[in-house]
Every structure is written in structure tokens, then in C-alpha cells.
Amino acid sequence: MSKEQSLKEKTAQGLFWGGFSNGAQQLLNLLFGIFIARLLSREDYGMVGMLSIFSLIAGSLQESGFTAALANKKEILHKDYNAVFWFSSLMGIGLYLLLFLCAPLIADFYNTPALTPLARYSFLGFLIASLNTAQSAYIFRNLMVKQKAIATMSSLVISGVTGVTMAFYGMAYWGIATQSIVYITSLTCFCWYFSPWRPSMQINLRPLKGMIAFSCRLLITNIFGHINYNILSVILGKFYTEQEVGDFNQANKWNYMGYSVITGMINGVAQPILASVADDRERQKRIFRKMLRFTAFVSFPTLFGLSLITPELITIAITSKWSASAEILRVLCIGSAFTTISGLYSNLIISKGKSNIFMWNTIVLGLIQIAVMLYCYPYGIPVMIKFYVIINVSWLLVWQYFLWKEIRLSLFEMLKDICPYALIATAVMLATHYATQSLTNVYLLCTAKILLAATLYIAIMWASGSVTFKESLQYLWKKKR
User: Fold this and answer.
1) Single pTM value for the model
2) Which whole-number Å values give the CA distances from 176 to 49, 142, 247, 248, 326, in the listed order?
3) What is the DSSP string of 88-104?
4) Does residue 215 carry a pLDDT above 50?
């Protein structure tokens, strides 16, 4: 088997298991999320949502970008993993103690005293996750996508059952917090089971020196990425009610379930594969464009379709008490269709070792979002959401400029790769909307939209002779046989 064939096989297997894993994960998240959302109130989700940015930033600090640094390192030894393990573990302990003491200040910021004990409990999650950084990096570097899928899905089942049980017995937001902690704990245990690497008691952090320049840029990038993603939760928590924060977090959760199926499938293989051909620009460009077409082929119909059925889906799944979140979700889904493209772009930038570009792109985007959101908050949540999406979609052009510098991918080539799928998906959703608008039964309307939109999109792909569509069918047929 040639290197090209071997790389194609690894990419196909990674996409298959990544797609299967993320599809199953979001299905489990959906099922458990429906039960919990029906049992809990909007205020419960708002309470947990206010703390999410602190946990995510602390998690980024304890991981410090070393997962990607290990994945991109040419030669790797036991001492490299060991240094990352001990650094992450010690950082996790230090950060937890700091945030434990700062919990009352966080509660004062939001004028919600009940956040103090909840924060101290919720922050246990990133402390536990600090024990998994090296193991997760080993699994990621060695493309153990199947093992990661089993670990993730098993953890979701265990934590989901825990969350639903606690919600049923009236534990309110404590159930959501416990669900997250149980998930992290289970995932850590499974990763230790699947990874053959084990730490030694010799604490030597000197191997980090060769990775620190790369990882520090990723650390700053990840922090600003979390700020970008959660800035609305912080501003809403400060200036709006817990119910409105809960509406946004519920919408954001469903939006994440939609686009993470795609980003998880792509991200699980994109960076290792692109890094492996980083020395051959033409080959890397060819592989990247195939990934770009596949991402657009899946992303636009999936997320535009989710936007189409949002009102009916929310009403059926978690009742009309969450109807305010449906309108927020509709706009977020449109933006997320482009976010998946930006995610693929950032993977290529990282694979080229240009984490500084990734860092500054994310920092500038974050600063722009913070400024615009602070300016827009007096005009209401719908205005903030629309500007948030417009900024994120427009930023794809900035990523495109850097892709052109790295692999000479022109704007015309990018548009040629993604526009057909975006335009076809838009036309299909519009046709479906007008064809089904006379239906009044919410169950019938949701079913009709899904079936008609899926049928139209597949029929157009088949009739147009899409290469990406044919390659996907051929691989699925091969797996079936």
C-alpha cells in the first residue's frame, strides 16, 4: 500500500469513526438533554451557564495547549508525555484552590449568592480533567478515534443517567453540575484504560521547554476562543435575568449539538493528517480542499436544516416554555454552518506550526466581539445574537487570507469548493419552508420538513454528480461490505 493510499485510508477511517462517534454523542446528548430540560427550569440552566466561562478558561490553563504540541512534535519520548502529565496535574490543583477562594467574588459579580457553593463544586471538573491531558494527547496523536469514541459515548451514558436521576429527584442545577463532573471523571478513567502510556514518579518539566513557544500561543488562543464562545453568557448574566441566560444557554447547547457532530468528525483527523504532509504544500493543499468540500457538503444542509425545524423541534422536545430559545437557536445555526469551515482553516494553520497566526486571529476576533456585544446589549438579545453571528461569518475571510499565504488557496478556489453546497442547501430549505407552511400540526410539520429537505438535497447531489457525494457513498458501501 502506497503512502497516499495509507493516508486516504487513515483519513476515511478517522472520518467514519469521528462521524459515527459524534453523531451518537449528540444523539445521547439530545435524549438526556430533553429529559433534563423538561424537568428543570430556565433559571437552573442560567445558574450553570454563568460559571461555564470560568471552568473553560481554567481547563485551558491546565492543558496549556500541550495536547496539540505533542501531536505536532516530530519525535516524542516518554519524558515528553510525563512532563505534560505532571505540569497539567499541578496546574489543575493550583487553579482549583485559586477559584475556590474566588468563588464569592464571582457570586458578587453576578449578584447571585447561591453561585458560591455551586462554583466550588462545579470547578472540580477541570481538576479531574487535569489527570487526563497526557492520556488524551496520546490517543489523539495516534489517531485512536475508535477508542476515543467508545470512551466518550460510555461516559455520556453514565453521566446522562446521573443527571436525569438527580433532576427527577428535584436537585435542580446541582444535577447539571454533577452530570458534567461524572462525565469528566468517566472519560478520564476510560482514557487511562485505552492508553498504554503511564506516568512515572520522576517529575521533570524540562521537556516542556521545546514545546512551550507553540503551546503558549495555543493556550492564549484557547482562552480567547472560550471568551468568544461564552461572552454572551457573561454579558447576559451581568445585565439580564437568569431566565434569559437560561434561554441563551439552552439555544447554545442545541446549536453545539448540531455543529459539533461535524467539527468533532473533522477535528479528530484534520490536524494529524495535515501535519503529516506539512512538508509537501501541493499535496497538503489537495487534501485540504477535499476536506473543505466534505465539510461544506455536510455542514450547510445539517445546520441550515436545524435552523429550519427549530421552532417545531424545541416545542416537541422540551416544550413551549423554551420557545424564546428557538429564535436564538435559529440564528446561531446559520452562523455555525460557517464556523465549521473556520475550524478546518485553523487546523491547517496549526499543522503548519503557525500557532501565532491562530492566536492573533482569535484574540482580535474576541476583542471585536466583546466591544460590539457591550455596545449592543442595551438594544436587546436578538440584536446581540445577529451581530455575533455576522462577525463570526465575516471572519472566514480573514482566515482565507492566511490560507492563501500558507498554501496558496485562492478566494476563488475556496468559493468554488463551498458555494455550491451553501447555495443548494439554502434553496432546499427555502423550498421546504414554502412547501410545508400550510401544515399546522407541529409533529407533522417537523416530520415533513425533515423528509422533504433530506430528499431534495440528496436528489440534487445525485443529479449533479457531486464527487464528494459519490466518494462518501463508495466509502459507506465499502464499510458495509
Assistant:
1) 0.69
2) 10, 33, 15, 16, 21
3) HHHHHHHHHHHHHHHHH
4) yes
